[in-house]
Every structure is written in C-alpha cells, then in structure tokens.
Amino acid sequence: MHHLVILGGGYGGLRVIQRLLADKEIEDFKITLVEREAYHSLKTEFYALAAGTVADRHLRIPFPDDSRLNLVCDTIKDIHLDEKEVTLKSGNSLTYDDLLIGLGCEDKHHGVPGAEEKTLSIQSMRRARKTNSIIQNVPHGGKIAIVGGGLSGVETASELRESREDLNIRLYDRGDNILSMFPPKLYNYVTDWFIENNVTIINRANITKVDWKTLYNHEEPEEFDAIIWTAGVQPNKLVRSLAEKHGFETDRMGRVETTKYHHLPDYENVFLVGDCAASEHAPSAQLAEAQGDNIALLLSKKWRGEKYPEKMPKMKLKGVLGSLGKKHGFGLMGERQLTGRVPRVLKSGVLWMYKHHSG
C-alpha cells in the first residue's frame, strides 16, 4: 500500500488530497495529514478575522471524510529525509513512502529588533484571533500601525477601517507607493481610497526598531495602541532548516528550489507545495493549488507504475483580486486592470465557490 504523508492542510495540501481521493484509476493507498488544526483554514481571509469583520467559523472548512485519509492533529518537530520519517511534538513519529511538505509561510521581520516579539500577525488563525482580540480592546480614537504596504497590509488596513471608524490607522511602506507590484492605475486608486477614508500612508518608511507599542521609523519613535506586521513572508522555519541542513538552493524569498516535477533534488519521494516551493510567481493560494494539481497527477502516475510526462502542464494563474472593505476592490486579471465594486464582487464569488466546492 502506498503511504503519502502530507505536512500542512493548506491550499496545496488540500488540493492534492481532493485530487487523489477522486482519482478512480489508483487504489491501495492511504494519506496521513498532519495539521495543527482539525480543519482547513481560508488563510487569504485572515485579515478580515483580525479586523473583526468575519467570524472564524466562516473561515473553516472540514477535511474530506474518507477512510483513506487519516488526520493527525499535531505539530511537526523534525523531518528526517534519509530515514523517511517525520517526528511530532507529541513524541510520535510517522514513516512514509512519499512526503508532501506544505507548511506554508510565516512573517519575515528583516532583522528589525523587537519586530518578531512585539508585533501582531495575521499569518495563522490563532494569531489573527489574538490580533482581533487586542484590536477590539483598543480605546476609542486609538492608534494602529500596519507595517507593510503590500496586498496583506492594504487589505488589513481597509478592513480595519470598516470595522473601527474611530481608529487612527497608519500604513507604513518602504517604497515610493503602496502595492508596488501592481500597475500605477491600481495603486493610485487604492491610495485615493485610503485618503478618502482617513487612512494615513507613510511612504519611504524605514522601520529600525519595535518596542512595546512603540514604532521607530528612521529612528524616530511613535506611540501606538497596537502594531500589526505585514512586511513580507518566508517559508516555515522547518523548511528553512531543512534547506540549510541539506544544502538545498533557495530563491530570494527563501523558498526551496525543486525539480520540474516538484520534488527535492536527490529525493524523488519528497514534494514541496505552496509557500515552501520556489517559483517564478509570488506566493498565493492559486499557485499552491496549481502546484497541487501537478503533484497529484505525478503521484497518480507513480503509484500506477507509469512514467512522468516529459513536459509538465503550464500552470495558469488567473490573476489577483484585492478588497477595500466589503464594497470596493481592485484586481489584475491578465492584462485587465479592475477597480471599484466589480473586483470586490468577483472576489466574494471566488471565495463562495471555493467554500462551496471544498466543503
């Protein structure tokens, strides 16, 4: 019997599970999923959980109910590639024939003193809940700093504005403008929205230190009631440790380089998916799912004794949609730039379809 162990029940891991369980051509296999939570989480919406506009029950999806799938709710302690073994925090261990590593990402603090220990996060459901708890206890007229003007920072700031109209929200970005990865039409539209809704943008910021409720920009301190960090991500620390131990090459974000078949060099039975795997594309749920489709195809062929295809299917990503509260948004679909209500409606529709299909 083929035994696949999947580390992490995120977008990539869940997609592999769904594809393999639905494949009628393979049999005699089992999947063990190791995940801290008993459910799949909609990580792309954690900003809304942190802001308090969505309850966490709306961001949970149960894993498939199938006798071939065994869910182990535990934390991974270490991965032993040569022994084909995964050790868990509980003291138990798992052996595998094939391994899929989809442990996601965590905040990257760029070596800023105090940033890791003294800021809030939206990178996990538990941390987003904690962020929400602190934000909702900020007194009337309190000050909130959000560090990082990328997609996560922008969505967090806009959703927080919708949740708490009384707050003084300041968005810090190191570039000349927020959303630097988007075309000018889009970042100018979002900038105008923030101006109209009293969110202050601080461009060309240089955060040099973080203390409890104090942010140092260009060494100048400013007091806040809460500081939320959204200034970049990096692969899970276990994956970074694995890369260092075995000398695997990584990209500029620290994601591990894989072969065209999504497995580690010299370890054809160890696949990487999502924020752990190097790619020409930026990290996203779409990318993780596309990689998951490919990996499920490869495992199906492997278990049936067939050769891998000479050329892998090209991963086609549909674009990026961002929200500005519940009524406005922005997006890039191919070459088409969208602003206003249409991209927000599209994003809501995509989320509904995902929940309906996965649930």
From TrEMBL:
Its cofactor is FAD. Signal peptide: none annotated. InterPro entries: FAD/NAD-bd_sf, FAD/NAD-binding_dom, NADH-Q_oxidoreductase. Keywords: FAD, Flavoprotein, Oxidoreductase. SUPFAM superfamilies: FAD/NAD(P)-binding domain. Pfam families: Pyr_redox_2 (PF07992). Its EC number is 1.6.5.-. GO terms for biological process: aerobic electron transport chain. One of its GO terms (molecular function) is NAD(P)H dehydrogenase (quinone) activity. It is an enzyme of class 1 (oxidoreductase). Residues 3-292 form the FAD/NAD(P)-binding domain. Belongs to the NADH dehydrogenase family. This is NAD(P)/FAD-dependent oxidoreductase. It comes from Alkalicoccus halolimnae.
